[in-house]
Amino acid sequence: MTDNERIPVDPESDKVIIGAAGEVIIPKRIRSALHLAAGTELLVETTPAGLLLKPANAPRGLRLEDLRGFLKQDGPPVPLEELCRPVDYSKDWQGSEPKDK
User: Fold this and answer.
1) CB 27 within 8 A of CB 16
2) CA nearest 32: which of 7, 60, 57, 65?
3) What pLDDT digit, counting tens, does each position of 12-46 carry?
């Protein structure tokens, strides 16, 4: 199973109940598909859709939702033509001393 694949939800067999001590048993077919063994530590995260469980020691790559708001700016939107215009760095280099190799 790759990171982009989803396991289809089976409304009958994927329903879980929270026990008296707060424990939840993840269905076997999901544990197997995600290679979750007994003792695997999971992080619990709240999302607008509900709860998200993810392995605590999984390598953390950036996901699209992690970048939401990353490029926020104050003020009016910048036109695409201005964003794509080449940047002139010549003023930054004027008066600087060349480095010898």
Assistant:
1) yes
2) 7
3) 888 899 999 999 999 999 999 888 899 999 999 99
**45: nearest Cα among 63, 69, 21, 20:** 63
Strands (DSSP E) along 1-101, which ranges?
42-47, 50-55
91 is written with which tokens? 């003023």
Give me the residue label for tokens 């694949």. Answer: 5
Residue pair 34/21 in contact by the 8 Å Cβ criterion: no
CA distance 84 to 82: 5
Secondary structure class of 40 (helix, strand, coil)? coil
Rg of the chain (C-alpha set): 24
pTM beyond cutoff 0.70:
no
DSSP 87: P
